[in-house]
Specification:
73 residues, Non-ribosomal Peptide Synthetase Peptidyl Carrier Protein, Chain A, 4 helices, 55% helix, mainly alpha
Length: 73
Amino acid sequence: MERLHEILKNVCPSVDFENCTDLVSGKRIDSMDLVSIISDIEDEFGISIEMDRITPENFDSMEAIWKTVSDLL
């Protein structure tokens, strides 16, 4: 999860990913941030995140993102 945290901080350095639980639903990251995050995750972990997995529930917190990534590894 450390590498995921680095990816998130590189895209949005001002967001507190360790404590935030409403990244998408609270509009703390926008659609362009989300596209960058997904692209970086796919490149880093060698996975493909399908559109049906791109939901607020799967991207509202670092833990939710990590679970989504882990499910695809």
